[in-house]
Design a protein that fits this description.
Layout: H1 2-40, H2 49-58
């Protein structure tokens, strides 16, 4: 009976490790998606002073 308990404890620990790995992988995918989204955004944003300075040069 003790062997069964040890096996169940090992399986529980393995399940926790797998769940943690899945959550870490999911978080990494989310960070990757955020980085990709930032890359797609325009370099100049209207709320920045840099954009206003550049806009003044042309208008």
């Amino acid at each position: 009976m003790a062997d069964d308990t040890d096996i169940h404890d090992d399986l529980d620990a393995l399940a926790c490790d797998i769940e943690r790995a899945i959550l870490e992988f999911d978080a990494a995918l989310e960070r990757h998606a955020q980085v990709r989204q930032r890359v797609r955004e325009p370099v100049f944003r209207s709320e920045t002073t840099t954009f206003d300075d550049v806009q003044d040069l042309f208008f």
